[in-house]
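yo

u said u wanted the structure for the complex thing, so here. seqs first:
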Amino acid sequence: MNEIAVKCDGLVKTFEDTGALRRLNLLVRKGEIMALIGPSGCGKTTLLRLITGVIPPDSGSISIGGDLVAGPGLVVPPEMRRVGMVFQNYALFPHLSVAANVAYGLQGPGRDDDVRAMLQLVRLSEHANRMPNELSGGEQQRVALARALGPQPDVLLLDEPFSNLDSEQRVQVRNEVRAILRMSGTTAIFVTHYQEEALFMGDRVAVQSQGKIEQVGTPDDVFGNPATRFVAAFMGETDFLPGEVQPEGVKTEIGMLQTNNEVRIGTHVDVAVRADDVHITPDPSSNAIVLTREFRGMVNVYRVRLPSGRFVHSLQRHTMQIAPATPVRVVMDPGHPLTCFPGTTP
Amino acid sequence: MFDSTYMARRYSGRVISRIGSWWVSGSGILWVAGSLVAIALLIPVVYLLLRALGAGDAAWEELISVRTARILGRTIWLAFSVTLCCGFLAVPLAWLTVRSDLPMRRMWAVLTPLPLVVPSYVGAYLMISVLGPRGLLQHWLEPLGVQRLPDIYGFPGAFLVLTMLSYPYVLLSTRAALLRMNPAMEEAARNLGSGPWGTFWRVILPQLRPSLVAGGLLVTLYVLRDFGAVSLMRYSTFTRAIFLQYQSSFDRTMAAILALVLVLIAMTILAVDVRTRGRASYHGGDVGSVGSAVTVRLGLWRWPSFCFCFAVVTLALVMPAGVLFLWLVRGISAGVDLSSLWVSALNSLLTSGAAAGLALVAAIPVAVLSVRYVGRASSILERVSYAAFALPGMVVALALVFFGANYARPLYQTMALLLFGYVILFLPEVVGALRASLLQLSPSLEHAARTLGRGPLDVFRTITLPITWPGMAAGVVLVFLTAMKELPVTLILSPLGFRTLSTSVWSAVSEAFFARAAAPALLLIILSSLPMAMLVMRERERIYE
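structre next:
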């Protein structure tokens, strides 16, 4: 189970504008779904293009299924790599039927049976003779998946595959896709820039920023114990509160907070505080006041100004309504230790 | 530490990555083919340049002589006045047919751009056969005692013919701009208290400016490149002066120098055109079509406007068509031999067909490289292929004659050289058509096919070609039909005694056998209307989609 499916070692790729990679390392284990997340321009798509082999790296190496496919003096062309890919725009061949699209990557005598099996897997058997433009977005998505899975690739790459679907379809389709990948035991690298999608889809999550992987871990790990300030900010709505480390915890302006990091007493740190950890109640005697309320449906997110002039966000149920300019008492109620980072302000 | 093969591989990897290629393998053939095409294209121009420079002091003396200045003056004067007049005709026509309640607006919208399909030497021929000496008009007026008409030859004839044939360029670009224009802007101007005239001058016209300039530059280029009309009208602009020089003198250096000056002017116009085009499309970008524009009521101006459209269409379309028909009937009743017509029609078909096929083969590597291997090298290649836009047919013909006579004697006066000339002249159009259809194909389709285990050539055959061929075919057909009516290259490079439709018209008119020119001219007009019909049909399809 711990066999390595994809190994990227010190990948460098320079571009004039955005999307460059700077000595990127990544290990994907066989059979797992690796969710790759990062802001646009961080080089996610570049990484996928390097793995499929449409562009060569400037330096560094890539192995797939134990075979070196790109490295010093070696570039294996895409058609010889056993890498499947599902594209953002699906890239279905418009002049071929659904069945012919799936058959495109298949060979040999069992081809027709394989096509039938793949279409069955994605529940599109009755659409075999349709043309791609006669399908809904979700159906096109499944054809693309069947086509890419057909040749049984060593690894399947999915490049923001749900971004062309509306939000209702998206939830349904991503459940299906996850189930299909599980069923076929496929190793997959799933690229997204939605935090929620990465946490749902990935067995592990890799957070990429500015051409490097910042952290790799289980979804809970990456969300709960962010390794860097960037990961903390990117994976959740996070405010950073400065404080001083004391024996009982970190002393901040909203009270004593517990941290899971080992820090020396007396040092200054910034504690990562998420909106769901911050509780507020109206209190006329408090110096903190609500500035704005952002109504998101099920919840309200309040922006609160602390006496020091810093801001924290607080997430409350939609029934709890507080008008802007109301003084509130801010209470930290995380129920778990918080992460802190070396302080930026003394 | 680094042995040589390692370095070689590293280096090739770097080249590929810099070009941003995804066709890692299989690109070598494309680059070789593309470079060969570019070199072949540059041969004539470079040769012309060397030839002119080789003449030394004599070249400079000729360049700054009074004669050259006169030719330059005539060319610029003709181009300027034709362009200006086209603007004055086209803007009212465009506005009337798009935005007003002009009587029979739809009919005028269809008829006004049609003169575009008449080759310039055919237009000149019809004009001369009516207004010239021994022409129809004089014939009709003779009983009234009119012995001489004002001379049609020279500037007036050239100006009249070229204006009538090329105003559609401005008309079409202006119409397109008017149709794209966001009517909300006009309504806003009216709401802000501006009257209809004020709105036209302060809101509509400024927005039309980029398209007007673009259309006007097309007309200028058309006049600069034209050989047929100015020659038949005996007005010596550059193209005619070059031809006369080439025909009469032993020293062809003078012709080469004139040709270079002409190329320089055309390149300047083209450079301006490229810049304004960029801006024009930028202007088009911010259009959200919000409802359709209100039709403007002309009121008292309704019938005068009608008469204006009627006059233009009569002069540019109805009269030439009628005259052509008349000559055709006269020719047939006088027993003009039609057998030579079929020979020249067949010759035209064969040479144009071969030219279109060759241009396609030459264009594929250039287009694929420029679309899929974006980078400095491929953009240079693409620009070289577009450079022929700045080469009037007369210049291409002259350069190839020089080249053939001095360096490729076996090719001189053969079909191969004629086809080579056609390919140089028409390559830009095919490259443009191929590029347009390749650009519509998302590279992720080819990428997907590669990840499914197919090699680059296989992908081109099974994915790229089946999806893009309609656009490619349209481009090739367009070239085929354009090559049919080409005159100067055909005239100069054809093997001895080889006649096509265009040279038949030319020689018949040159000798004032007006009836004999009618049948090939009619065939040419019909053939040139096909691409227009094709474009119109495609436009319709796009609207229905």
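Residues 1-25, 280-291 of chain B have pLDDT under 50 and may be disordered. Chain B has two domains: 23-45+336-545, 55-282.
cya
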